[in-house]
Amino acid sequence: MKDLRRYLVLKYIQYLVLSSSNAVSTSLGLLGSLYTIILLQSAKVSSKSTVVLISSLAKADILVSVSVVSKMVVWTFDVGSSPTAFTSALLQNLLTANTHISCLLLSCVAFEAYLITFFPTESRHLRTVKNARLTSRIIWILVTAECALFQTDDLLKASSTSAPTRTPCILLLHFSSTAAALLRSLSYFLGILLRIVNVYIYYKIFFSMSNR
């Protein structure tokens, strides 16, 4: 559990403390996720709701791995040409999806820590492996839908600039652009809210443990 706690601290710094990712934090995050995935295969790690959330958090870095490997392949074997607009948008949307999934899962872990600290008995029926798996599945589905909307919007924008558009296409482009813009704004404000909530939760937990 000490290694898992260190991994959580690393992820909190990467997604909820740093304003943007960089090469160092991304590399450390990928290595930490790989080690965590291997560690969770051990029979010594019991199956708990927190472990399920951490496992899903580590698997979210697969999206980062796909993006990084794809860029390395392009640079290595096709240096003379740049990736298509579709590919560039897809790689960026994968990184966005990873960030959103990670922030939501980290917030779930923080909320569970809050329940364990202040309502250990009353919340026991909520802190189950089944609920943790359901929560992780819902988060993945919602963020996948968000990623699909962003990708559709980017694809329609790219196609509208390269070919003449008809009225139905213009309407579809306008709808997807409006929906994507609203969702991006919502994601931005939700990210700020999650940072505030996580700071408050761990502030309460820290002072509660200090008083004890």
UniProtKB/TrEMBL annotation:
<dbReference type="GO" id="GO:0005886">
    <property type="term" value="C:plasma membrane"/>
</dbReference>
<protein>
    <recommendedName>
        <fullName>G-protein coupled receptors family 1 profile domain-containing protein</fullName>
    </recommendedName>
</protein>
<dbReference type="InterPro" id="IPR000276">
    <property type="entry name" value="GPCR_Rhodpsn"/>
</dbReference>
<dbReference type="InterPro" id="IPR017452">
    <property type="entry name" value="GPCR_Rhodpsn_7TM"/>
</dbReference>
<keyword id="KW-0675">Receptor</keyword>
<keyword id="KW-0325">Glycoprotein</keyword>
<dbReference type="GO" id="GO:0007200">
    <property type="term" value="P:phospholipase C-activating G protein-coupled receptor signaling pathway"/>
</dbReference>
<feature type="domain" description="G-protein coupled receptors family 1 profile">
    <location>
        <begin position="32"/>
        <end position="212"/>
    </location>
</feature>
<dbReference type="GO" id="GO:0035025">
    <property type="term" value="P:positive regulation of Rho protein signal transduction"/>
</dbReference>
<keyword id="KW-0807">Transducer</keyword>
<dbReference type="GO" id="GO:0004930">
    <property type="term" value="F:G protein-coupled receptor activity"/>
</dbReference>
<keyword id="KW-0812">Transmembrane</keyword>
<keyword id="KW-0472">Membrane</keyword>
<dbReference type="Pfam" id="PF00001">
    <property type="entry name" value="7tm_1"/>
</dbReference>
<keyword id="KW-1133">Transmembrane helix</keyword>
<keyword id="KW-0297">G-protein coupled receptor</keyword>
<feature type="transmembrane region" description="Helical">
    <location>
        <begin position="181"/>
        <end position="203"/>
    </location>
</feature>
